[in-house]
Design a protein that fits this description.
By secondary structure, the protein is an alpha/beta fold. The chain has 13 helices and eleven strands.
């Protein structure tokens, strides 16, 4: 009987192990015997994740494997059990994941916001706009070049929701889909002197390298991103337990202090707001 149970255990355990083994790390942070994987976009690209992971590892002896992915891809990786947890900004999809039972630990950890950037000449006159809806209407009406990630990331989902709000289906030569990450698309917009909706964290970190772009619109509450964590249910993956402990750390005072101060020493302002600030905009 014990032999049958052992065989059954391995039959169920191997697919999960193999799936995780196939997932490539874009960075590994911390030291110790415990290992877990986390998929996210800009918090990893901008090294906030590294700062959090190293502080966590100092007490918990854990290695974080960062998988670079936008919110849409991160959710898919979690659903397919290819990562132990994610940090995303796609509220509707997050809630659905929890309702369907393949994700837990939806915890608010912070926020940033979207800016609409473009050439200083501002051919669509979006600096005069009164809302995000007005911005997008002006861009489409003038046929001004607009860049879209087109990758189902949280950024892309938010962009498409604004187009839906103004009942416009973006298409034509003026609408350029990159299928690329935030920084890469931002660079393309700079090179072509086009418009783009970029998150404030990336802009603060990169704007000095973008001479052809400036912030032309900001401040619409609809463009605030709230970031949440999601993780695997207990025992669903080998790293689910330590991932849950990492989420507790990020939500703690120490973790929140790291988030609210991250970037100030290098850029003069923080790249993200903490969970207390984000509560004002959370769904």
């Amino acid at each position: 009987m014990k032999r049958v149970l052992l065989i059954t255990f391995f039959l169920f355990a191997l697919p999960v192990t193999n799936l995780l083994a196939d997932t490539q790390c874009n960075g590994e942070y911390g030291e110790g015997p415990n290992k877990f994987s986390l998929a996210t976009g800009s918090p990893g690209e901008l090294n906030l994740l590294k700062a959090l992971a190293e502080a966590f590892s100092a007490k918990n002896k854990a290695v974080l494997c960062w998988v670079k992915a936008g919110s849409g891809e991160s959710l898919k990786l979690l659903k397919d059990k290819r990562v132990d947890m994610i940090m995303v900004h796609a509220p509707d999809a997050e809630k659905k994941a929890v309702q369907e039972g393949w994700a837990v630990n939806r915890i608010l950890i912070g926020s940033n916001e979207f800016y609409i950037v473009g050439p200083p000449e501002d051919p669509a006159k979006i600096a005069e706009a009164t809302s995000a809806n007005d911005v997008f209407s002006r861009i489409e009406k003038g046929g001004s070049t607009f860049f879209s990630r087109g990758d189902n990331s949280g950024t892309h989902q938010k962009e498409m929701s604004v187009w839906a709000n103004v009942q416009i289906k973006p298409e034509g030569n003026w609408y350029v889909v990159t299928k690329d990450f935030m920084k890469a698309t931002l660079k393309k917009a700079n090179d072509a002197k086009g418009y783009f909706m970029v998150d404030s964290s990336t802009w603060v970190a990169e704007n000095k390298n973008l001479p052809n772009l400036k912030i032309l619109f900001r401040g619409d509450k609809y463009l605030v991103n709230t970031y949440h964590t999601l993780s695997q249910p207990v025992s669903a993956t080998p790293g689910a337990r330590i991932a849950s402990e990492f989420i507790e750390f990020v939500a703690s005072k120490q973790g929140q202090d790291i988030i609210r101060n991250y970037g100030k020493d290098k850029f003069g302002e923080a790249l993200y707001s903490d969970a207390d600030y984000a509560k004002k905009y959370d769904d």
